[in-house]
Structure formats: structure tokens, C-alpha cells
Amino acid sequence: MPDYAIPAPVACHTMPDGRRLAYRRLAGARPMVVFLPGYRSDMNGGKANAVLDWAHTHGRACLLLDYSGCGQSDGDFAQGTLSRWCEEVVALVELCGPGQVVLAGSSMGGWLMLLVAEVLRERVKAMIGIAAAPDFTDWGRDPVAKAALAEGQVVHDANAYGHEPTPMYPAFWLDAQASRRLSMPIPYSGPVRLIHGQADPDVPWTIALRLADALCSADVQIHLIKDGDHRLSRDADIDVLITTLSGLFAQPQGLV
Hints:
This protein is of the alpha/beta class. It contains eight helices and ten strands.
């Protein structure tokens, strides 16, 4: 495995309220590729590091990050919300200086990238969703769980990827419900690429169709992987991600 720490060592950025965010920044040509992890995930995953390695190989700028309460960043995960994490992503993008970006979001990161794009506007040159899960607090929650969250209770779900159950906190749920996007036009006109596994047990592949329909862009492509699961972390799945990323930068219609 490549030594990813060499081109992009972990650094920290302190937000105005004292939150310390861990990130890895790779200098290079713009647009800068920004990878947004999923719920309770971090920048050490295989997809994030594959993107970083691709950027290093091709001389492209890249930004990996941990949301507050996740990975190597400070904070309490129970206080995390989409709005809070969107603010953090924007702050780290701004820290890297002016210029355009390509947002690549995995699972919840594919929802968060829509919110970040609304803030950064014309700076977002393209977006890639990997098992993107916009509005999962709505379609992914049964009425009993929604009622419990609305009453301020923590809901725990079985975790197929670890020993501990996955918590959802009321603050996250309430903020997320106010951040739903699939029921309205999403005012983004740049290229969007959506990669989704049809064997995904967590996010139905039909969500990719709903997201494509909601996006105002005419340049939206969906790549379905019939036996792909939610993580899409097999070598073949990561090859699809890197091929998709490379295709966005390819000439003549690519991102200069």
C-alpha cells in the first residue's frame, strides 16, 4: 500500500469556537478534489486514500478531512449535524485558498456535498456521489424511530460494519430533516456522477435515480454495480470511482 502520509500529513485547523479539525491537504493543480466521508466515518478509508493517491499521481490538489466528533478531529459526535459539518467543510476549503473544487461524497457525504455546493456555488466544478444517501433520516427511518428522535431520544441501529451499534442523535435528525433535498429541484448545473451498488442493503439504488431527477443539471450519469454493496470498497469498486474521477478531468470536455 502506498505511504499516503508522505504527500499529505495530518494537520489541524481550529474553528472560531475552538473546534479542532483534522485534515490532509495535498497541493496541486485545481480543481481541488474534496472527499466527504459518510456517517461516523473518517478520512482513513480506502476510497478517500485512493482519491488522494490518484490526485498525488496526477498532480492535482486534494483535501481529506474528519468532521468534528469523528476520526482525529476533536468534539463530541452527539453534537454533530449536517449544518455543523457543512460549515467545517467550507472552512477547510476556504483555508486551502481560492479556486474551484470537485466534491466526492460517500453515503452521508453524498448528501453533505449538496449542501456544501449550495454555499460554494460556482466554485463547485463537479460532484461525485458514492452510494449517496440524501434524506436518509426520512426514507431510512421508520415512524417509531422518527417519533423517538422527535421526542429527544437517541436511536441505536445494528451496525453491520462493527461491534458497537450506530447511534443517531436527536440534534442530527432534526437538523437533517430540515436539510432534505430530494423533494425539490437541486439548483446545480455542473457534471454529476453517481455510483451505486444494486445490492446495497442500506441505501436503495433507486435513491440515485431520485437524486438524478432532482438535480437541475443535464449532465448527470449513474453507474450501477449489480453486486455492489453500500461500502463500495472492493478493488473493482474503487477502480470504478477512480475511472469516474479521471473521466471528469479528461479532455476535451474535462475539468481544466
